[in-house]
Amino acid sequence: MSNEQTLAQFEASTREWVKENFPTTLAGSAMGLEGEAEASTKADFEVWRQRLAEKGWGAPTWPVQYGGAGLSHPEAKIISQEMAKLGAFNPIPLLAGMGVTMVGPTILEYGTDDQKERHLKHIASGEVRWCLGLSEPGAGSDLASLSTKAIDNGDNFVVNGQKTWTSGADISQWCGALVRTDPNAKKRDGISFVMLPMGQAGVTTKPIKLISGASPFCDTFFDDARAEKADLLGDLNKGWSVVKRLLQHERQSQTQARSPGSGSKVSLQEKAKTYAGTDEKGALADADLRIRLANHLMDSHAHGLTVSRITAEAKGKVEVSAAASILKNSATKIAQAKNELTMEFMGTQGVGWEGSSFAESELSNVRDWLWGKAISIYGGSHEVQNNIISKNILGLPETTQKG
Length: 403
Ligand SMILES: Cc1cc2nc3c(=O)[nH]c(=O)nc-3n(C[C@H](O)[C@H](O)[C@H](O)COP(=O)(O)OP(=O)(O)OC[C@H]3O[C@@H](n4cnc5c(N)ncnc54)[C@H](O)[C@@H]3O)c2cc1C
Hints:
Elements: H1 3-21, H2 39-55, H3 73-85, H4 92-95, H5 99-110, H6 113-124, E1 130-133, E2 149-153, E3 156-167, E4 174-180, E5 191-197, E6 203-208, E7 217-228, E8 232-233, H7 239-253, H8 268-276, H9 287-313, H10 323-346, H11 360-372, H12 382-393
Parallel strand pairs: 1-4
Antiparallel strand pairs: 2-3, 3-7, 4-5, 5-8, 6-7
Helix pairs in contact: 1-3, 5-6, 5-7, 7-10, 8-10, 9-10, 10-11, 10-12
């Protein structure tokens, strides 16, 4: 049987399974289930999470042994597509925080059998959420300048220091943190990657409010926090290699040009027509806007095709490489361009912060636009990706970037 036939069969069986198992009460609700959702909706949500976890579809490409389904990347893509067609969604990657996209793949590569056994299934089922403590007040782009210390204490390390911008730290159960284990070594050589539970006395989190009003991240303080030696990921003082790989996984997960609000069922063209009006042929009335919108849609489509081509060239396995930096920057530009265009054609209806003259979708637009500014910062800033591209892909000489 050809590969296409096998994929077509997989598509049909996936559609069938989603139809049978996705509680229709949740259709289109995605992650809007926290807080005010009815108890019955929450119960349906939990049923759906459990069904996905049992099927290994929380992290479908991971080995079955570790809670995945052992599927290929094209098969995983089919699952997402079929779910989207039926208004379904996979909550597990979101519930697991940085677990499915970043920590898990890095544990699969660098972890001991014991670490894989203890951590991966709980990530793949969406029951344990992970955050990442990398950035510090004095170490962002220049991450190797970090000063959080971990001192050898027999079976464990004693960790002291401050992390910042830690996404989801206040709601995570585990943290993957980059710490200094040898203060005398050169700055990239004395660093290790440890994993530690957040629910211990030595860890405190303080949410930071963003300009968009949301508080998705925190300052995280380690005061004599403990990380077990059994939870050192990779070798002692070799954490720089581990984190470089982890950050490639992060960029890889950010190569889709998703902008805030991109889950909207109304297409950008339809939205533009509603706000900016149409001519007698039903086309967008403003010719200049029409051209820029068409250019944006072409860029977005070309980006999507490039991501698919690179995935296909890697024979279905998504290879994480320096090319992820190119795709991350391209995805960022497209997502931010979409926010700018939307803002422009919505006019004053797109800038409302509160008030009854704005629809709910209009009020969220300005917040989405503001949140969109973060895309070129998190996961390594746009400029830093350009440095990586110039050094590791184009082979240009170093300028400001060291190492
Ligand atoms: C929404 C969001 C979520 C985040 N989540 C996490 C998280 O979960 N865990 C975590 O550890 N961190 C997280 N971060 C932090 C993020 O990784 C850092 O913000 C990022 O690496 C930039 O570091 P910085 O903020 O210290 O800026 P800086 O490093 O101070 O950079 C400031 C400016 O200088 C530019 N710059 C710096 N160095 C160079 C250079 N060599 N060449 C050219 N330009 C340069 C940068 O591009 C930027 O424009 C998050 C950030 C955001 C916005």
